[in-house]
Every structure is written in C-alpha cells, then in structure tokens.
Amino acid sequence: MEKQKVLVRTLYRKLLTETRRIPPNASLTRLDLSVFDFPAHHGVEDRDTLLSAIRTAFRASNQGDGDSKERVQRAMEGLRSLHGLDFDSLPNKSITSDKQEDPSLISHIIPLTDSKQWLEKVRWLDPLSGTKVATDDVNNESLVEFPVFPLSGPLFPIDGKCLPIVSQFSDVPVAGMEIPLKIFEPRYRQMYNDLFSSRSSSSPTSGVRSPTPTLRKCFIVPFSHPYRSGQFAQYGWLYEIMQVQDVADETNGKFQLVCNHLVTKPVKIHCIVNPQDYETRSTYLRAKATVLDDEQPSASDGLQPLDDLLRRLKYFHSKDPEKSLLLDRLLLALAEGSIWPVTQIWILNLQMQILDLQVEISNTIQIQALKALKTQASTVELQRNVSEEIVLLAQAPHKETLESMLMEVSTLVPLLLQDVSQEKQCQRLCERIEERLRL
Q: What angle do CA 83, 87, 93 make, to 5 degrees?
C-alpha cells in the first residue's frame, strides 16, 4: 500500500507538471475527466479548472479506499491522453454525457506499433517477377514513356522477417533537390546515351506518345518496397539531367559518368513496359507514366497548420535541446514555402536515429559474441549462433521502434505523393511529426 501511495504522489506531480505546460489561453473544450472520477458532464474548459480537478482527484485517491492501483492505471491513461492532446485544434463546442463523442475529436493517427499499416496504404505496382505487360497501358497514347532508374533497394531483408543490422541510405529525393549520381553499370550508361541521342525524340514502342522536348532528358526514380525486391510504389519522381561528365579516365574505369540532376515533378507510374528485363539486367527498365503538377501553397496558406504544429511542439519541448534543435531546422525548412524541405529534414533525422540505434545494437552483438566465444567449440558454430540467436536477442528490445522508423522512411514520401492534394499532404506530415514528437 505504501508503494502505491508513493506512485500516486509521483503521478500527481507529473500530471501537474504536464498541465502547467498547457498555454494559459488554450481551449480545452469540455475535456472529459471521468478518468479522475469526475462525471463526464462536469468537463473542463480551461487550465485552472483542470489543475483543480487533478488536485481533487489526488485527495480522493488518498481516502484509503483500497483502489489506488486502479486509480494509478487510469490516471496514467489520462496522462498519455493529455500529453498527446492538440489543444489549439479542438472545436469550441460542448461534449455532454448523453451524446456520443464528436468524431472530429478522435485521432486517426496510426500508432507507431501499427506502422505496417502505412505499408498497406501505399499503392504498389505489381511485382516485376512474373508480371505480364499490361497491353492497354502500353498502347495508351495519353501516357508518356520514360526510362526507370531505381536508386535504392529494400531496407529490410527478404520478406521483412528480420531487421537489418546496418541500413544503407541514399539521398531522400524531394522536389527541387539537386542530386549527383555516379554511373558505372552498362545498362545505365546506355540509358544516358539514349536520352541524349536523337532516338529520344521517337518512342521505341509503336503507337506510344513521345516525350515533349522538355522531358527528353528525364527519367523516373521510383520508391522501392521495404522488403520485396522488384516492386515499386505507383508514385515516384522525375529526374531531369542537368550535367554529364565523362570520368572514366580519371577513375581508372571505376565510374564512367558523373551526372547532376534536378528532382522536378511527381509522376504516376501506370506500368513497367519491359518487366522481364528486371531479372536479366540486359537493359534499363521503361515505364508508362503521367507527369503530375506539384504546385505548393504558400506558407501562409496551405502550410499554416504545419507551422502552427511545429511552433506548438517547440513550446512543449523548450527544455529539450535535441528536439528544440530539430524543430528549429523544420521551421527553417518550412520558410521555403513547401512541405518537401520539411519532409527531407524529417526523414534525415529518422535515418540518423536509425543508424544510432543500429550502432547500439551492433555493440550489444559484439559483447554477446565475445561471451559466446568462450563456450563455443568452433568458429563455424559461433558464426551460426551470432547470425541466428545473438542478433535477434540484441534487436528484440528495439525491434518495434526500429521497424517503425524504417517503415516510415520507406513509405512517407510515396504516401505524400499519392495524396496529391496539398491539404492532405500537409495533414499527413503533421500527423507523422506530431505522433513521434508528442509520444
């Protein structure tokens, strides 16, 4: 019982601390305090009433009624709700006990533990292995044919049954970025030659519309499925070639070309024209696609909800140097008037967290491997145990967190691209940032 009372007092102080972080003028809009044994119709509309209610609940929990443990559990749930509450966005209307809760107050953010749902929301093309060419799409004269250059493969091992020990990240493509590439594979050297030759002005497939002159030096970069090799998201980016330099002599043949590109517009991919060439690698892939407009709203219009969120989070995390620095970088990126610089900074931050976590896991693996070395009869047996047992053991405490971050890195940009609507893109990005930085 004494331990329970100590826990209640600790919780009480924590609740008061969290409540005092609420801006004085925040609208709590009839916050339901049933978790503190308050009838729902009492509600709370301002910070002072909330503080008073918490103090009353604390006095009630010290009445010696024997249910302190249950009160602690319910109050912990209330604390989590309080910490994630978006005070400024709640509608200013009452919620009474004889009516159901307004659906607009219910958060639709996917919990981090259910991050695989993000994967299900992405629209994926059919896997290239065993795929037959869609004749209707190939012969559709309204579609344009482009070369396809996948720049990254799956982040997870095959079938996603385990997590990578070390992740290899490439640049996160967003509109307006300049991205250099080093070309060494023959099929992609041929792709650049074709794009710069006169043949790029005519379609290789009869009856298919040719690219316009402004698109003849462009190719599609798709987003790969996190753990299925040869499967791409339906939405990707168009890369425009800005500069090509022959460096074969300077690199002793290691690289043939160094090319600079500008990420220009999003594209919707309808089909891969030559899926059979994915496995043979005899030539580069080609796709039929539609080029989409990507006109971003001004920061004072469509991006205002994101600006409000970042400033509100900065207020809550004012005493956390790491989060404050990240939010400053996000706000600076937002000043460019587009969600894409913000998205880039956000994903780069996730990648750094992933690498830090993988370093920690690798250190644990090394320590466990040294311990196992003292008991294993042979090096072969040790290697087998390191790969099958020690790795899984080291990853286990971090698996949920690591998996959710890897999944977000893989799916956030294609999800934003397929939303198309600037309002929906901004809303989705707000959800992702708010959930991670609040919880």
A: 130
